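Dear all,

This email documents one entry for the complex benchmark we are building for the journal club exercise. For each entry we list the sequence lines for every component of the assembly. Then comes the predicted three-dimensional structure of the complex as a token string, followed by one or two observations. Please use this as the template for your own entries, and keep the labels exactly as they appear.
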Amino acid sequence: MPRYLVTGGAGFVGSHAVLALLDRGHEVVVLDNLSQGHRAAVPAAATLVEADLADAKRVAEVFASWRFDAVLHFAALSLVGASMREPLHYLAENVGHSLRLAEVAIKAGCLRFVLSSTAALFGEPDRVPIDEDCRIAPSNPYGDSKRMVEEGLAWAERIHGLRYAALRYFNAAGSDPAGRAGEDHDPETHLVPLAIDAALGRRPALTVFGDDYATPDGTCIRDYVHVSDLAEAHLAALRRLETHGSCRYNIGSGTGASVKEVIGAVERVGGRQVPHSIGPRRAGDPAVLVAASDRLRAETGWTPKLGALDDIVRTAWAWREAHPKGYGDRG
Ligand code: UFG
């Protein structure tokens, strides 16, 4: 039975990937320091190793204890705004931890690696939809940290024969359709959960960050991709790596939705108003980010099954309504 190491498997996207792997009958070891992830997000069928990637000795022990077919590396700092305040911290953690992890994996003979990368690689994109050949020009340290990791992995490919998949996520949202996992960040900064919580009366009114962009309704357009579809993309990439070399894929649904359209979807699905007001723009927000995922579709056969905005909002709503305190493990 294939066995996978999933770093950050207690986090939002990681926990959904763990479910997808377990659903296929694969064996999963999760390595997570639980700084952002949740113990309760790790299914009993997976093994949880509570450890920090900074602890190189512990990471090496994990590779000595199990033989892995591949590493899926989700664990990272991932907030654009925070990275603008603490650039060196972001670069040191994300780049240092990722490349050391790859080094230990290679030494242990594990030569397949799937990296959680980001649309933030593209900064203000030179064209939309954004394909893999668009200019890489991150406009914040978070995006740049992922660019550096991708480049490090490319060196490992040339010199050590590592096969890696760099998966550039657009806006992950939604939750497991069977209700086994959901989105629980602290602090929460993402639009879909904030809009749902505002509708449920659990948070103050949502602030829309600007309505004077050059878009049809003036609000920013993003590509919301269902987290379970995103999880499936990891399995597709793993299959691809069995027979092919390294790959880099942009992953989105291929359709853009404005902030106002997301609010409309939440109101439609939830049957409640989303109290909101218009505020100033948020620094660093590009007007439109939409993925061209044609390469992933063509090369792996991946296709989003929950691509409609209402599917994303419906599953996210169901989980948040059922879990008023999220995973309930924070003070
Ligand atoms: N937004 C609001 N009000 C809020 C929160 C968000 O109007 O309270 C807007 C944002 O301005 C943006 C859209 O909703 O236009 C989506 O914002 P999110 O914060 O949910 O997501 P981002 O697009 O900012 O960020 C996501 C990932 C990042 C990744 C980035 C790539 O969370 O990790 O996409 O562009 F880097």
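Observations: DSSP finds ten helices and 14 strands in the chain. Residues 78, 80, 118-120, 171, 189-191, 194, 206-209, 220, 222, 259, 282, 285, 289 surround UFG (CB under 6 Å).
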